[in-house]
Design brief:
CATH topology of the domain at 124-244: Leucine-rich Repeat Variant
Oligomer: single chain
Largest sheet: none
Order of helices and strands: HHHHHHHHHHHHHHHHHHHHHHHHHHHHH
CATH superfamily of the domain at 124-244: Leucine-rich Repeat Variant
Mean pLDDT: 80
Shape: elongated
Distance between the termini: 112 Å
Number of strands: 0
Helix content: 55-70%
Structural class: mainly alpha
CATH architecture of the domain at 124-244: Alpha Horseshoe
């Protein structure tokens, strides 16, 4: 009797396989899926141990196919869960959810015992997020680290991300910011970075209170600081996140970190500061100047790394937006450094950053004089004629426009080769360069 029943079940499983791949099926052609599924249903209900037998047969005959046929898989799973719940519990997967192994594939490994706390598995839709968030608050570091790792994996899926945010994952992360375990803090920082890439993740971090993330910036673990800087860079690129970070005092924090952080982390610190300085309203610029931002950026102009030099000059350009800070920068020797080191650099991004800072400083007579004494006029002309980079060209044009009111410089630049180059750019296809070239040409040809 048992052998006969098993042969019927084998035929039924083969029928379900035939739904997807008829060429691989060995079932009788007269047995349709509409008959096979009820037979499985009745067998699992009426025959003692039928649920176990169905699961075993599915594992033996069709795990690969069943894992890829959504309708068949869901139908079998629904039948077995309704009629014999212990059959699915017994053959629960022991592998992580990200391993892409279906529950049927793991039926050979019985799991009657409950899973340990630190073993994180993917739960049902409405249960998964609250349970995982609860484990992120667990007293055990092992459980907490496992939960945070699982969160970083699952939050990549938008549907799960929304559920995690609704379940309070951001509050759970903030609660672990000051955890004594370095591994936990590293995973918390990583989780913040993953949250910023989730739908509405940045808004939720800001809403709960971005100032709570500040302790991670001063963490003794380098991996924690590295990850949180990347997260801050993403947060500050949003309007709401930028304003909240400025209000939370991150401008002064990042000015300090730009000066004291390890060399390899200084570029990302400067990128975060550069983003903060662009906050609408100018409050970040005022705070930066009050906290020694101008002298701090000038000190970084002579740094060995090109990435540091680029963003130090860009931050300086933003800070020098009126007469007083321009005078401070000029008196501190910024013009000579920018003229001699930046305009002669082989890195176009450094050249562009240097020209960006100079176009503000050259509006002052003292800046023009010092620039010309260092041979800056000739360097501008050479870059205009020889460097094809678009950003370099744009910033060189603006620097020439700032320098042109000086009569000696205007005479040096009002020559045929420069005029022809500007005319070519004026009638080019790039509208922004065309507009800037036309304005620059008017200034160097101006006659009192």
């Amino acid at each position: 009797m048992r052998a006969c029943s098993r042969s019927i079940l084998v035929s039924c499983v083969d029928v379900m396989m035939e739904c997807a791949t008829p060429s691989l099926s060995v079932c009788p052609p007269h047995l349709s899926p509409w008959v096979a599924l009820p037979v499985l249903f009745v067998a699992a209900w009426a025959w003692p141990g039928g649920g176990d037998e169905c699961m075993t047969l599915c594992n033996e005959h069709g795990p690969y196919i069943l894992d890829r046929i959504y309708g068949v898989r869901q139908s079998l799973r629904a039948v077995l869960c309704l009629i014999d719940p212990m059959s699915t519990a017994k053959y629960r997967s022991l592998t992580p959810h990200s391993s892409d192994v279906h529950v049927f594939h793991c039926a050979a490994a019985a799991n009657a015992k409950p899973l340990p706390e630190e073993k994180i598995t993917l739960g049902f839709e409405h249960v998964n997020a609250p349970v995982l968030v609860g484990k992120c608050r667990h007293e055990s570091n092992a459980v907490k680290c496992a939960a945070l790792t699982a969160y970083c994996d699952q939050v990549k899926m938008p549907g799960f991300a929304v559920q995690f945010l609704r379940a309070g994952i951001v509050q759970a992360l903030y609660a672990s910011v000051a955890d004594a375990d370095g591994t936990t803090r590293t995973l918390v920082a990583k989780a913040f970075g993953a949250t910023t890439r989730a739908p509405n993740g940045t808004e939720k971090i800001v809403e709960v209170g971005i100032e709570k993330i500040a302790p991670l910036v001063d963490d003794r673990e380098r991996s924690v600081r590295t990850t949180v800087y990347d997260a801050l860079e993403i947060i500050c690129k949003s309007m709401k996140g930028n304003s909240a970070a400025v209000k939370a005092g991150f401008v002064s924090i990042m000015i300090q970190k730009c000066a004291t952080e390890e060399g390899s982390l200084q570029p990302v610190c400067l990128r975060v500061l550069y983003t903060l300085l662009q906050c609408p309203g100018g409050h970040s610029l005022v705070e930066a100047r009050e906290n020694g931002g101008i002298r701090g950026m000038i000190a970084l102009l002579k740094h060995d790394q090109d990435a540091v030099k680029e963003y130090a000059s860009k931050c300086l350009a933003l800070l020098c937006d009126h007469i007083e800070p321009k005078g401070i920068a000029i008196n501190a020797g910024a013009v000579s450094v920018l003229t001699n080191d930046y305009l002669s650099s082989s890195n176009n991004r450094v050249v562009s950053g240097g020209a960006c800072a100079l176009m503000g400083l050259l509006t002052e007579l003292q800046g023009k004089t010092e620039f010309m004494n260092n041979g800056g006029t000739e360097k501008l002309v050479d870059l205009l004629l020889q460097n094809p980079d678009r950003m370099v060209q744009l910033h060189i044009l603006k620097s020439i426009s700032s320098l042109a009111p000086h009569p000696v410089a205007r005479k040096m630049m009002n020559v045929e080769v420069v005029v022809n180059r500007l005319k070519d750019m004026e009638y080019g296809t790039d509208k922004l360069l065309s507009k800037s070239a036309r304005k620059t040409l008017e200034l160097i040809q101006w006659v009192p």
